[in-house]
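Help needed: design a sequence for this.
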């Protein structure tokens, strides 16, 4: 371990290990089937399994939703919180509001799913998570969650592990 000085003059310890080797890249596309218009799906176990299978010790995993109406985020996987997240999204972006994307005068989209696109803007569609010593670097309560906003549907989530 190496000590460094902080701005306040105190010492901090760097958790430092050296892993040398050839850079490797692994890719996989997960297929996620959803049954509800708005549904949250925990992808953590699938992502951990991929990271372990690659044997990458240090690097990153890039996770990307390949859709404009399904997002990704990290949070606690707890039923009451998940219900609160759905309620928050519906209050921020109500389905019943007038949106030009849903109006045939302005758009050729017949799905009437503008709220789904806007909810995706709130969450985003990609995550980047470090890998250290062969494990995802996530906090104790953190899970990787895909948010379906326009289901039921079949979704593709692209995973790419990069590291040594």
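Sure. Designed sequence:
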């Amino acid at each position: 371990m190496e000590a460094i000085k902080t701005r306040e003059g105190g010492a901090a310890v760097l958790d430092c290990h050296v892993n040398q080797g050839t850079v490797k890249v692994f890719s996989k596309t997960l297929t996620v089937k959803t049954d509800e218009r708005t549904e949250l799906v925990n992808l953590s176990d699938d992502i951990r399994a991929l990271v372990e299978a690659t044997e990458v010790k240090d690097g990153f995993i890039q996770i990307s939703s390949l859709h404009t109406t399904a997002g990704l985020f990290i949070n606690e996987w707890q039923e009451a919180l998940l219900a609160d997240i759905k309620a928050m999204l519906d209050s921020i972006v109500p389905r019943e509001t007038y949106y030009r994307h849903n109006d045939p005068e302005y758009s050729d989209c017949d799905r009437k799913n503008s709220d789904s696109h806007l909810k995706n803007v709130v969450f985003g569609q990609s995550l980047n998570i470090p890998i250290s010593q062969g494990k995802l670097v996530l906090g104790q309560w953190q899970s990787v969650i895909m948010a379906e906003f326009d289901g039921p549907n079949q979704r593709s989530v692209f995973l790419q592990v990069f590291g040594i």
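The helical segments are 44-54, 79-92, 114-123.
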